[in-house]
Design goal:
Layout lengths: L1 H39 L6 H29 L6 H59 L5 H21 L10 H46 L4 H24 L3 H13 L11 H33 L14 H7 L5 H33 L3 H4 L2 H16 L4 H14 L7 H15 L1
Helix pairs in contact: 1-2, 1-3, 1-10, 2-3, 2-10, 3-5, 3-6, 3-9, 3-10, 4-5, 5-6, 5-8, 7-8, 12-14, 13-14
Protein name: DUF4239 domain-containing protein
Organism: Neorhizobium petrolearium
Keywords: Coiled coil, Membrane, Transmembrane, Transmembrane helix
Length: 435
Amino acid sequence: MALGASQRLHDGVLAVETMTRFALAVLALASGVYTYLGVRSLLDGSPTAVFFAAIIYSASVSVAIYAFWSYMARFYPHVTTYTGRTAMLGVMALGAAMIIAMSSWLNAAALAGSAALEQHLAETVEDYTADLDQAHQNALAAQSLLPDIQRASERFAQLAASERQSGALTGTTGSGSVVQLLSQMSGQMKELESGINASREQVTNLFNEGQKRLETMRTLVSAPGAVAPRADQFSSEVVALTGVIASLGQTSIAPSIRRAADDLSLGFIAPVADGGNADLVNRQDQVMETVRASVAAQSKVLSQAADEILTRPPVPERRFVPLSSAEAVLRYASDFIPAWAGAISIDLLPGVLVFILAVVHGAIRKQEEKLPFAERITAAELLLALEVQRAVTANGVNLENAVAGAETESEALEPNNITSIDLKSRTRDRSHEDR
Protein backbone atom coordinates (compact mmCIF):
# COMPACT_ATOMS: atom_id res chain seq x y z
CA MET A 1 0.00 0.00 0.00
CA ALA A 2 2.73 2.40 0.95
CA LEU A 3 4.64 1.68 -2.23
CA GLY A 4 1.52 2.28 -4.30
CA ALA A 5 0.84 5.61 -2.58
CA SER A 6 4.45 6.71 -3.06
CA GLN A 7 4.32 5.75 -6.72
CA ARG A 8 1.08 7.66 -7.21
CA LEU A 9 2.68 10.76 -5.70
CA HIS A 10 5.64 10.32 -8.06
CA ASP A 11 3.28 10.05 -11.00
CA GLY A 12 1.35 13.10 -9.79
CA VAL A 13 4.51 15.22 -9.60
CA LEU A 14 5.45 14.21 -13.13
CA ALA A 15 1.92 14.90 -14.37
CA VAL A 16 1.76 18.45 -13.02
CA GLU A 17 5.30 19.42 -14.00
CA THR A 18 4.18 20.79 -17.37
CA MET A 19 1.21 22.51 -15.77
CA THR A 20 3.50 24.07 -13.17
CA ARG A 21 5.74 25.53 -15.84
CA PHE A 22 2.73 26.78 -17.80
CA ALA A 23 1.25 28.41 -14.69
CA LEU A 24 4.56 30.11 -13.88
CA ALA A 25 4.81 31.41 -17.43
CA VAL A 26 1.24 32.76 -17.45
CA LEU A 27 1.59 34.44 -14.05
CA ALA A 28 4.94 35.97 -15.02
CA LEU A 29 3.42 37.24 -18.28
CA ALA A 30 0.41 38.73 -16.48
CA SER A 31 2.66 40.46 -13.99
CA GLY A 32 4.75 41.82 -16.86
CA VAL A 33 1.70 43.24 -18.62
CA TYR A 34 0.44 45.06 -15.54
CA THR A 35 3.97 46.19 -14.74
CA TYR A 36 4.14 47.71 -18.22
CA LEU A 37 0.89 49.61 -17.64
CA GLY A 38 2.12 50.84 -14.29
CA VAL A 39 5.63 51.89 -15.31
CA ARG A 40 4.37 53.69 -18.42
CA SER A 41 2.61 56.25 -16.22
CA LEU A 42 5.89 57.07 -14.45
CA LEU A 43 8.08 57.71 -17.49
CA ASP A 44 8.44 61.00 -19.32
CA GLY A 45 9.73 61.63 -22.79
CA SER A 46 8.74 60.82 -26.34
CA PRO A 47 6.08 58.11 -26.83
CA THR A 48 8.59 55.83 -28.56
CA ALA A 49 11.15 56.07 -25.77
CA VAL A 50 8.49 55.52 -23.13
CA PHE A 51 7.12 52.49 -25.00
CA PHE A 52 10.47 50.73 -25.38
CA ALA A 53 11.60 51.55 -21.85
CA ALA A 54 8.37 50.16 -20.40
CA ILE A 55 8.56 47.05 -22.59
CA ILE A 56 12.15 46.33 -21.54
CA TYR A 57 11.39 46.82 -17.87
CA SER A 58 8.26 44.66 -17.92
CA ALA A 59 10.04 41.91 -19.90
CA SER A 60 12.85 41.92 -17.33
CA VAL A 61 10.32 41.59 -14.53
CA SER A 62 8.58 38.67 -16.25
CA VAL A 63 11.85 36.81 -16.82
CA ALA A 64 13.00 37.47 -13.27
CA ILE A 65 9.75 36.20 -11.74
CA TYR A 66 9.70 33.07 -13.92
CA ALA A 67 13.36 32.26 -13.25
CA PHE A 68 13.11 32.85 -9.51
CA TRP A 69 10.08 30.63 -8.95
CA SER A 70 11.42 27.98 -11.35
CA TYR A 71 14.60 27.76 -9.27
CA MET A 72 12.60 27.57 -6.05
CA ALA A 73 10.27 24.87 -7.43
CA ARG A 74 13.24 22.83 -8.64
CA PHE A 75 15.46 22.95 -5.57
CA TYR A 76 13.46 23.78 -2.46
CA PRO A 77 11.43 20.51 -2.27
CA HIS A 78 14.66 18.45 -2.35
CA VAL A 79 16.47 20.32 0.44
CA THR A 80 15.92 18.21 3.56
CA THR A 81 18.28 19.65 6.17
CA TYR A 82 17.09 22.24 8.66
CA THR A 83 19.92 24.63 7.77
CA GLY A 84 19.28 24.27 4.07
CA ARG A 85 15.54 24.80 4.45
CA THR A 86 16.12 27.89 6.57
CA ALA A 87 18.52 29.33 4.01
CA MET A 88 16.10 28.64 1.17
CA LEU A 89 13.23 30.28 3.07
CA GLY A 90 15.43 33.33 3.64
CA VAL A 91 16.21 33.48 -0.07
CA MET A 92 12.50 33.10 -0.86
CA ALA A 93 11.57 35.95 1.50
CA LEU A 94 14.25 38.20 -0.03
CA GLY A 95 13.11 37.37 -3.53
CA ALA A 96 9.45 37.99 -2.64
CA ALA A 97 10.33 41.39 -1.18
CA MET A 98 12.26 42.30 -4.34
CA ILE A 99 9.36 41.17 -6.54
CA ILE A 100 6.92 43.32 -4.55
CA ALA A 101 9.30 46.28 -4.83
CA MET A 102 9.87 46.03 -8.56
CA SER A 103 6.51 44.71 -9.73
CA SER A 104 3.61 44.47 -7.28
CA TRP A 105 3.21 48.19 -6.59
CA LEU A 106 3.25 48.87 -10.32
CA ASN A 107 0.62 46.17 -10.78
CA ALA A 108 -1.48 47.87 -8.11
CA ALA A 109 -0.98 51.19 -9.93
CA ALA A 110 -2.28 49.61 -13.13
CA LEU A 111 -5.26 48.05 -11.34
CA ALA A 112 -6.29 51.01 -9.15
CA GLY A 113 -4.18 53.97 -10.29
CA SER A 114 -7.04 55.92 -11.86
CA ALA A 115 -9.28 55.35 -8.85
CA ALA A 116 -6.50 56.44 -6.49
CA LEU A 117 -5.94 59.64 -8.49
CA GLU A 118 -9.65 60.40 -8.40
CA GLN A 119 -9.66 59.88 -4.66
CA HIS A 120 -6.72 62.27 -4.34
CA LEU A 121 -8.64 64.88 -6.33
CA ALA A 122 -11.80 64.27 -4.27
CA GLU A 123 -9.97 64.72 -0.98
CA THR A 124 -8.34 67.87 -2.33
CA VAL A 125 -11.81 69.22 -3.16
CA GLU A 126 -12.94 68.54 0.40
CA ASP A 127 -9.88 70.33 1.80
CA TYR A 128 -10.42 73.39 -0.36
CA THR A 129 -14.12 73.39 0.47
CA ALA A 130 -13.24 73.61 4.15
CA ASP A 131 -10.73 76.39 3.43
CA LEU A 132 -13.30 78.38 1.46
CA ASP A 133 -15.89 78.03 4.22
CA GLN A 134 -13.37 79.13 6.85
CA ALA A 135 -12.29 82.14 4.79
CA HIS A 136 -15.93 83.04 4.21
CA GLN A 137 -16.73 82.82 7.91
CA ASN A 138 -13.72 84.94 8.83
CA ALA A 139 -14.68 87.55 6.26
CA LEU A 140 -18.28 87.66 7.48
CA ALA A 141 -17.39 87.69 11.16
CA ALA A 142 -17.46 91.48 11.17
CA GLN A 143 -21.07 91.33 9.99
CA SER A 144 -22.02 90.32 13.55
CA LEU A 145 -21.08 93.83 14.69
CA LEU A 146 -23.54 95.44 12.28
CA PRO A 147 -26.59 95.31 14.62
CA ASP A 148 -24.64 96.97 17.47
CA ILE A 149 -23.39 99.71 15.18
CA GLN A 150 -26.87 100.29 13.77
CA ARG A 151 -28.36 100.58 17.25
CA ALA A 152 -25.66 103.06 18.33
CA SER A 153 -26.18 105.14 15.19
CA GLU A 154 -29.95 105.21 15.66
CA ARG A 155 -29.59 106.06 19.35
CA PHE A 156 -27.35 109.07 18.63
CA ALA A 157 -29.68 110.19 15.81
CA GLN A 158 -32.74 109.92 18.04
CA LEU A 159 -31.05 111.86 20.84
CA ALA A 160 -30.10 114.57 18.37
CA ALA A 161 -33.66 114.77 17.08
CA SER A 162 -35.09 114.91 20.60
CA GLU A 163 -32.67 117.63 21.64
CA ARG A 164 -33.47 119.63 18.52
CA GLN A 165 -37.21 119.38 18.90
CA SER A 166 -37.82 119.35 22.65
CA GLY A 167 -34.49 120.03 24.37
CA ALA A 168 -34.63 116.58 25.98
CA LEU A 169 -30.98 116.76 27.07
CA THR A 170 -30.25 120.40 27.88
CA GLY A 171 -33.78 121.66 28.35
CA THR A 172 -33.39 124.12 25.47
CA THR A 173 -34.63 123.38 21.96
CA GLY A 174 -32.66 124.14 18.84
CA SER A 175 -29.59 122.92 16.98
CA GLY A 176 -26.75 123.73 19.30
CA SER A 177 -23.46 122.11 20.19
CA VAL A 178 -25.09 118.98 21.66
CA VAL A 179 -27.16 118.34 18.56
CA GLN A 180 -24.05 118.88 16.45
CA LEU A 181 -22.03 116.37 18.51
CA LEU A 182 -24.78 113.71 18.50
CA SER A 183 -25.26 114.09 14.76
CA GLN A 184 -21.49 113.73 14.29
CA MET A 185 -21.43 110.46 16.28
CA SER A 186 -24.43 109.15 14.39
CA GLY A 187 -22.71 109.97 11.09
CA GLN A 188 -19.54 108.07 12.07
CA MET A 189 -21.57 105.01 13.01
CA LYS A 190 -23.39 105.18 9.66
CA GLU A 191 -20.04 105.26 7.86
CA LEU A 192 -19.04 102.05 9.67
CA GLU A 193 -22.39 100.53 8.74
CA SER A 194 -21.91 101.46 5.09
CA GLY A 195 -18.41 99.94 5.09
CA ILE A 196 -19.69 96.66 6.52
CA ASN A 197 -22.51 96.49 3.98
CA ALA A 198 -20.10 97.12 1.12
CA SER A 199 -17.78 94.44 2.47
CA ARG A 200 -20.69 91.98 2.65
CA GLU A 201 -21.41 92.42 -1.04
CA GLN A 202 -17.77 91.90 -1.98
CA VAL A 203 -17.49 88.82 0.25
CA THR A 204 -20.66 87.34 -1.27
CA ASN A 205 -19.33 87.78 -4.80
CA LEU A 206 -16.02 86.14 -3.94
CA PHE A 207 -17.74 83.27 -2.15
CA ASN A 208 -20.02 82.65 -5.14
CA GLU A 209 -16.99 82.58 -7.44
CA GLY A 210 -15.29 80.09 -5.13
CA GLN A 211 -18.39 77.89 -5.14
CA LYS A 212 -18.35 77.84 -8.93
CA ARG A 213 -14.70 76.79 -8.90
CA LEU A 214 -15.48 73.99 -6.45
CA GLU A 215 -18.39 72.81 -8.57
CA THR A 216 -16.11 72.62 -11.61
CA MET A 217 -13.55 70.66 -9.59
CA ARG A 218 -16.20 68.18 -8.41
CA THR A 219 -17.33 67.72 -12.00
CA LEU A 220 -13.75 66.97 -13.07
CA VAL A 221 -13.38 64.36 -10.32
CA SER A 222 -16.42 62.34 -11.39
CA ALA A 223 -16.27 62.95 -15.15
CA PRO A 224 -15.68 59.92 -17.42
CA GLY A 225 -12.57 59.44 -19.48
CA ALA A 226 -8.85 59.47 -18.81
CA VAL A 227 -7.88 60.96 -15.47
CA ALA A 228 -4.66 62.70 -16.58
CA PRO A 229 -6.30 65.49 -18.66
CA ARG A 230 -8.86 66.02 -15.92
CA ALA A 231 -6.08 66.32 -13.36
CA ASP A 232 -4.40 69.04 -15.43
CA GLN A 233 -7.60 71.07 -15.65
CA PHE A 234 -8.19 70.41 -11.96
CA SER A 235 -4.82 72.03 -11.18
CA SER A 236 -5.85 75.18 -13.05
CA GLU A 237 -9.07 75.40 -11.05
CA VAL A 238 -7.11 74.95 -7.82
CA VAL A 239 -4.89 77.92 -8.68
CA ALA A 240 -7.94 80.11 -9.32
CA LEU A 241 -9.66 78.95 -6.13
CA THR A 242 -6.53 79.67 -4.10
CA GLY A 243 -6.67 83.26 -5.34
CA VAL A 244 -10.33 83.54 -4.30
CA ILE A 245 -9.55 82.25 -0.81
CA ALA A 246 -6.67 84.70 -0.47
CA SER A 247 -8.93 87.56 -1.56
CA LEU A 248 -11.51 86.58 1.03
CA GLY A 249 -8.83 86.71 3.68
CA GLN A 250 -7.98 90.27 2.66
CA THR A 251 -11.56 91.60 2.53
CA SER A 252 -12.26 91.27 6.23
CA ILE A 253 -13.37 94.65 7.58
CA ALA A 254 -12.51 93.73 11.17
CA PRO A 255 -9.17 95.64 11.12
CA SER A 256 -10.98 98.72 9.80
CA ILE A 257 -13.60 98.46 12.55
CA ARG A 258 -10.86 98.12 15.13
CA ARG A 259 -9.21 101.35 13.94
CA ALA A 260 -12.53 103.16 13.72
CA ALA A 261 -13.45 102.09 17.25
CA ASP A 262 -10.17 103.50 18.55
CA ASP A 263 -10.81 106.75 16.71
CA LEU A 264 -14.20 107.14 18.38
CA SER A 265 -12.64 107.53 21.81
CA LEU A 266 -9.10 108.73 21.08
CA GLY A 267 -10.16 111.18 18.37
CA PHE A 268 -13.22 112.48 20.17
CA ILE A 269 -13.46 116.27 19.74
CA ALA A 270 -16.39 117.94 21.42
CA PRO A 271 -17.53 121.30 20.05
CA VAL A 272 -17.42 124.40 22.21
CA ALA A 273 -20.64 125.07 24.07
CA ASP A 274 -22.50 127.85 22.28
CA GLY A 275 -25.22 128.60 24.81
CA GLY A 276 -26.48 132.15 25.27
CA ASN A 277 -26.02 132.12 29.04
CA ALA A 278 -23.74 130.44 31.56
CA ASP A 279 -26.42 128.03 32.75
CA LEU A 280 -27.01 126.68 29.23
CA VAL A 281 -23.28 126.41 28.61
CA ASN A 282 -22.92 124.39 31.82
CA ARG A 283 -25.72 122.08 30.82
CA GLN A 284 -24.25 121.61 27.36
CA ASP A 285 -20.86 120.74 28.83
CA GLN A 286 -22.48 118.13 31.11
CA VAL A 287 -24.36 116.54 28.22
CA MET A 288 -21.26 116.48 26.01
CA GLU A 289 -19.32 114.83 28.83
CA THR A 290 -22.04 112.19 29.04
CA VAL A 291 -21.85 111.71 25.29
CA ARG A 292 -18.07 111.35 25.60
CA ALA A 293 -18.51 108.57 28.19
CA SER A 294 -21.09 106.85 26.02
CA VAL A 295 -18.82 107.05 23.00
CA ALA A 296 -15.90 105.66 25.03
CA ALA A 297 -18.04 102.72 26.19
CA GLN A 298 -19.20 102.05 22.64
CA SER A 299 -15.62 102.26 21.40
CA LYS A 300 -14.48 99.71 23.99
CA VAL A 301 -17.21 97.25 23.05
CA LEU A 302 -16.42 97.53 19.34
CA SER A 303 -12.68 97.18 19.96
CA GLN A 304 -13.15 94.00 22.01
CA ALA A 305 -15.47 92.51 19.40
CA ALA A 306 -13.02 93.38 16.62
CA ASP A 307 -10.14 91.83 18.61
CA GLU A 308 -12.08 88.58 18.95
CA ILE A 309 -12.55 88.49 15.21
CA LEU A 310 -8.90 89.26 14.52
CA THR A 311 -7.74 86.45 16.84
CA ARG A 312 -9.45 83.84 14.68
CA PRO A 313 -6.94 81.50 13.02
CA PRO A 314 -6.36 82.46 9.40
CA VAL A 315 -6.88 79.98 6.59
CA PRO A 316 -3.65 77.95 6.26
CA GLU A 317 -1.88 78.18 2.96
CA ARG A 318 -2.52 74.99 1.04
CA ARG A 319 -0.52 73.73 -1.91
CA PHE A 320 -1.94 71.19 -4.34
CA VAL A 321 0.58 68.48 -5.24
CA PRO A 322 -0.26 66.48 -8.40
CA LEU A 323 0.45 62.76 -8.07
CA SER A 324 1.12 59.99 -10.54
CA SER A 325 -1.04 56.88 -10.41
CA ALA A 326 1.72 54.89 -8.71
CA GLU A 327 2.27 57.58 -6.07
CA ALA A 328 -1.47 57.84 -5.46
CA VAL A 329 -1.74 54.06 -4.95
CA LEU A 330 1.04 54.21 -2.36
CA ARG A 331 -0.46 57.20 -0.51
CA TYR A 332 -3.96 55.71 -0.39
CA ALA A 333 -2.92 52.08 -0.08
CA SER A 334 -5.26 51.42 2.84
CA ASP A 335 -8.25 52.35 0.66
CA PHE A 336 -7.30 49.92 -2.13
CA ILE A 337 -6.46 46.75 -0.23
CA PRO A 338 -8.24 44.45 -2.77
CA ALA A 339 -6.16 45.88 -5.62
CA TRP A 340 -2.96 45.45 -3.61
CA ALA A 341 -3.96 41.89 -2.68
CA GLY A 342 -4.56 41.01 -6.32
CA ALA A 343 -1.31 42.62 -7.47
CA ILE A 344 0.76 40.80 -4.85
CA SER A 345 -1.04 37.49 -5.39
CA ILE A 346 -0.11 37.48 -9.07
CA ASP A 347 3.56 37.69 -8.15
CA LEU A 348 3.63 35.44 -5.08
CA LEU A 349 1.12 32.73 -6.01
CA PRO A 350 3.94 30.50 -7.39
CA GLY A 351 5.23 30.31 -3.82
CA VAL A 352 2.13 28.25 -2.96
CA LEU A 353 3.03 25.81 -5.73
CA VAL A 354 6.55 25.54 -4.35
CA PHE A 355 5.26 24.64 -0.89
CA ILE A 356 2.84 22.08 -2.38
CA LEU A 357 5.75 20.37 -4.15
CA ALA A 358 7.80 20.48 -0.95
CA VAL A 359 4.99 18.78 1.01
CA VAL A 360 4.51 16.10 -1.65
CA HIS A 361 8.22 15.29 -1.89
CA GLY A 362 8.43 15.16 1.89
CA ALA A 363 5.56 12.66 1.97
CA ILE A 364 7.28 10.56 -0.68
CA ARG A 365 10.50 10.47 1.30
CA LYS A 366 8.73 9.44 4.51
CA GLN A 367 6.84 6.63 2.78
CA GLU A 368 9.97 5.30 1.07
CA GLU A 369 11.98 5.31 4.29
CA LYS A 370 9.53 2.81 5.84
CA LEU A 371 10.00 0.24 3.04
CA PRO A 372 12.76 -2.38 2.83
CA PHE A 373 15.38 -1.76 0.26
CA ALA A 374 14.20 -4.64 -1.89
CA GLU A 375 10.78 -3.06 -2.23
CA ARG A 376 12.21 0.31 -3.22
CA ILE A 377 14.03 -0.80 -6.39
CA THR A 378 12.47 0.05 -9.69
CA ALA A 379 11.72 -2.27 -12.60
CA ALA A 380 14.81 -1.03 -14.44
CA GLU A 381 16.98 -1.79 -11.43
CA LEU A 382 15.41 -5.28 -11.23
CA LEU A 383 16.20 -6.00 -14.88
CA LEU A 384 19.80 -4.91 -14.38
CA ALA A 385 20.03 -7.15 -11.34
CA LEU A 386 18.81 -10.11 -13.40
CA GLU A 387 21.43 -9.40 -16.02
CA VAL A 388 24.05 -9.38 -13.30
CA GLN A 389 22.75 -12.72 -12.06
CA ARG A 390 23.00 -14.29 -15.48
CA ALA A 391 26.52 -12.97 -15.96
CA VAL A 392 27.62 -14.31 -12.59
CA THR A 393 26.07 -17.70 -13.22
CA ALA A 394 27.71 -17.93 -16.61
CA ASN A 395 31.13 -17.31 -15.04
CA GLY A 396 30.60 -19.92 -12.32
CA VAL A 397 30.65 -17.47 -9.38
CA ASN A 398 29.04 -18.37 -6.02
CA LEU A 399 25.91 -16.20 -6.24
CA GLU A 400 24.94 -16.48 -2.60
CA ASN A 401 28.31 -15.13 -1.42
CA ALA A 402 28.17 -12.26 -3.94
CA VAL A 403 24.63 -11.25 -2.97
CA ALA A 404 25.47 -11.41 0.75
CA GLY A 405 28.43 -9.11 0.24
CA ALA A 406 26.36 -6.70 -1.84
CA GLU A 407 23.65 -6.53 0.83
CA THR A 408 26.26 -5.82 3.50
CA GLU A 409 27.62 -2.86 1.58
CA SER A 410 24.14 -1.61 0.70
CA GLU A 411 23.19 -1.44 4.37
CA ALA A 412 26.26 0.68 5.12
CA LEU A 413 25.42 3.18 2.36
CA GLU A 414 22.41 5.41 1.67
CA PRO A 415 19.91 3.28 -0.25
CA ASN A 416 18.72 6.11 -2.48
CA ASN A 417 22.27 6.68 -3.76
CA ILE A 418 22.83 3.06 -4.88
CA THR A 419 22.21 2.55 -8.54
CA SER A 420 21.98 -0.59 -10.52
CA ILE A 421 25.29 0.21 -12.20
CA ASP A 422 27.04 0.38 -8.82
CA LEU A 423 25.47 -2.95 -7.79
CA LYS A 424 26.62 -4.52 -11.04
CA SER A 425 30.19 -3.28 -10.59
CA ARG A 426 30.35 -4.54 -7.00
CA THR A 427 29.04 -7.96 -8.02
CA ARG A 428 31.68 -8.22 -10.75
CA ASP A 429 34.41 -7.29 -8.29
CA ARG A 430 33.32 -10.03 -5.88
CA SER A 431 33.12 -12.56 -8.68
CA HIS A 432 36.76 -11.86 -9.49
CA GLU A 433 37.66 -12.29 -5.82
CA ASP A 434 35.89 -15.67 -5.66
CA ARG A 435 37.80 -16.80 -8.65
